[in-house]
Design brief:
The two termini are 20 Å apart. It is built from nine helices and no strands. Helix 2 crosses helix 4 and helix 2 packs across helix 7. The protein has 196 residues and is mainly α.
Length: 196
């Protein structure tokens, strides 16, 4: 969504337009849920926090400062709600919800073994992700899953870009170490470059 279009939706939603509010939710719902799910590992908690974040955001649109990105504001509120929930970040694994894709292959001719291998790999990746520090996990999720640039992550987490890069590097290394001990996932999956 273009920024000017998003700004128009925010202004309309602030005046009570339900269609504009629904459009804002649709535009950010999937990425917010995925972000919260990767941080918590709990689908129910991620869904509850995402809903609460949207309620808070939509109730306070008049406070939004349009010099900043709407997604940054939304993710900050959601992150604070997650922290306030006081969860211990121990996962209740649901690999279908984590990946956002169905467990069964969409091609009926695909071998069941490939599907099961993919599920195991996602499950192992989530387990490994939950074993890195909270800061590293959040940087990894924002960078790799949501494709946020380093500068935006630094702004979101209120830390210098160099610190974000350090968390990204150390988090990748920790993930690699954890995944190398596993036989069903390729550790090179964590090796995207951070030159954006």
């Amino acid at each position: 969504m273009e920024r000017h279009e998003e700004q128009r939706l925010i202004e309309d939603a602030a005046t009570g337009c339900k269609d504009s509010a629904a459009a804002l939710i649709r535009a950010h719902q999937r990425s917010l849920y995925a972000y919260l799910l990767r941080l918590s590992g709990k689908p129910d908690l991620a869904e509850d926090i995402a809903q609460e974040a949207f309620v808070r955001v939509l109730g306070n649109l008049h406070r939004f400062d349009n010099r900043f990105r709407f997604s940054t504001w939304l993710f900050t509120i959601a992150r604070r709600l997650l922290v306030n929930a006081g969860q211990k970040m121990r996962p209740a694994y649901d690999t279908d919800a984590i990946s956002g894709t169905p467990a069964r292959p969409s091609d009926p001719g695909a071998p069941i073994a490939d599907a099961e291998s993919g599920l195991r790999a996602r499950d192992e990746l989530q387990r490994a992700l939950l074993r890195v520090s909270a800061e590293q996990r959040e940087v990894l999720v924002l960078f790799h899953q949501l494709d946020w640039p380093i500068a935006l992550i630094a702004e979101q987490l209120q830390m210098p870009e160099g610190t974000v890069k350090s968390h990204l590097h150390r988090g990748r290394r920790r993930l690699r170490d954890l995944l190398e001990s596993s036989t069903s996932i390729d550790p090179s999956l964590t090796g995207r470059r951070e030159t954006r």
